Each structure stands twice: as structure tokens, then as C-alpha cells.
Amino acid sequence: MNLEKPYIVSVYAVLRNEKGEFLLLRRSENSHSNPGKWDLPGGKLGRGELLKDAVVREVWEETGISIVLGEIAGYATFELPDKKVIAIIYDGGYIIADVKLSYEHVEHAWSSLENILEMDALPEHFKEFFKRFAAENKEPPELPI
Amino acid sequence: MNLEKPYIVSVYAVLRNEKGEFLLLRRSENSHSNPGKWDLPGGKLGRGELLKDAVVREVWEETGISIVLGEIAGYATFELPDKKVIAIIYDGGYIIADVKLSYEHVEHAWSSLENILEMDALPEHFKEFFKRFAAENKEPPELPI
Asked: How many alpha carbons lie under 13 Å from residue A48 in its C-beta half-sphere?
């Protein structure tokens, strides 16, 4: 095989606050890829690392938050200057915690699904993920009174 | 999260013979999903199992062949009756070996890329993978004489 660009697997998580808003992180202007763009917490799978371990580690490194990981929420595929990425996106659950950013990000925001779909500075591959997520995610049935 | 169908991760491999033809397996008519259709060797990721370990195991179970695993060759996404699948497809290298089928498949074939793109009984998601693979896969440069 002689692919023009190698594929890698990355893992990301969607985290929600008590209002159901999603956590987004804004990448540093010095970032190698997508500088200044909004991002989900996550990153590359380490060598010999399980998908679930990698996503818990990445979220912790980038937000200071220890998540209790849920199921797979969806996927995204995208191309960087030097590689192609297959991103597996997990449900990171509902959290109440302060966000402690790493050097990779400069800002965080909690954003509703409607706002996310309108955001200019969110890469198209994450928007596509959120569109599928909105279509696939049934609201829980109303609680009986 | 309350997805209508859960997502799972599966792993598959492309194996080639000395002519550069790809190994395809035909699913049993009793298969739960895609009965009678052509398939790549591969399957579900086990709990706590690394992607690379899972694909080597699945290829061995379904073909009796021990592969030396290469890089990621691409991906496919598809929907089954009860779940959605994110498939990571590895390069399983060039092999010279007899194929010993498991109960899951009834027939095997070695097929050129051109034939694969014409096959009616190959699911569309694998055809899409092979189309991308053909576009991305540069032929090795000619050997100096």
C-alpha cells in the first residue's frame, strides 16, 4: 500500500452541562491544524491504547475533567495537511465541573445544538457530526407525573 | 444520549494475492445481515480489545490466515438492522495461503479493483471504500533497471 496520506484513528467526546449545552474548545492560533477554530476535546489514539482509554485521557488532558464514558455518539472523517483522520466520537455524559484548558486551546464555550449548527468557526466535519447527532438522538420520553 | 441505534466499531482487512487481487468472502444465506453478499474479512471489536488485535483475530477466524498487519487503508460506515457500524479497514498485506472459510462465509474470490467496482453483490459501503482506496493509492514508482 502506498497511500498519499496515512490514515489515523482519533477519539473525541461530547460533554454536556445541566442545560444540555455542548462543550467546545477553541484551538490556539499557533495550532498546526485548524488554528483558531472550535474543536471538541479529544485527540490521537496512542500506540497500544484502547479507544475508551484514549478518549478519557484526552478529555482529562484538555479540560481537567474526569468523565464517565458513555456509548459512541457518532463519527467524523477529515483531512489534515499530513494525514487523514477517522474520528470516533463518544458520549462523555453530563458534567458539572470547571474547565481547565491545556496549552492547545485558548477558550471554551458551552453551546446549544442550534448555535453549533450556525457557527462559522467550527470545522465542517464536526458540524456534520452534530447534524447526524441531532437527527439520531431521540429526546428521552417525558417522565410520568 | 438516546440514539435510535447504537454505534459500534468494527475492523476489516484488505488482503492481496501476488497478482494484486483482493480477497472477498461471500456471506452465508443465513447471515443476520447482508445474506449472500460479498464481504471483507473482519468483524466486531471485542470488549477491551485493541483495533489491531481484533482485525488479526477476525481475519484468522474467517480465513485461517495469519496476517502481518499494515497501516489503515480506509474506512466505511453503514447501517445494519439493529446498529450503525464505523468500520476501520486495515492493509492486511500480500499473502500466499489457502483460505479456510468459517461457518460465516460460503465462498471466497480474488478480485481485481476494476471487477470489485462492478460487482452487484458487494454492499455499497465497501464499494465506496474501494473507490476511495483506488483514488488514494499511488502505484509504487517503477523500479530502476
From this structure: 0
pLDDT in tens, chain B (145 residues): 667 789 999 999 999 999 999 999 999 999 988 999 999 999 999 999 999 999 999 999 999 999 999 999 999 999 998 999 999 999 999 999 899 999 999 999 999 999 999 999 999 999 999 999 999 886 655 555 5
Taking CA–CA distances from A138, the nearest residue in chain B reads B2
Q: Rounded to an integer, what distance in angstroms lies between the CA atom of residue B84 and that of residue A88? A: 13
Q: Which of B68, B130, B126, B57 is nearest to B96 (CA)?
A: B68
Q: Where are the domains of chain B?
A: 7-136
Nearest to B137 among A2, A86, A140 (CB): A2
**What is the pTM assigned to this prediction?**
0.91
Whether B71 and A6 lie within 8 Å, measured CB to CB: yes
CB A57 within 8 A of CB A11: no
Q: Which residue of B has its CA nearest to A134?
A: B3
CB contact under 8 A, B2 and A86: no
- Determine the Cα–Cα distance for residues B91 and B80; give it in Å rounded to an integer: 24
CATH 3.90.1170.50 fits A7-136, yes or no: no
B116 DSSP 8-state letter: H
Is B74 an 8 Å CB contact of chain A? yes
CA distance B75 to B70: 14
Measured between CA atoms, the residue of chain A closest to residue B91 is A1
Kind and range of the H or E run holding A103: none
B1–A74 CB contact, under 8 Å: no
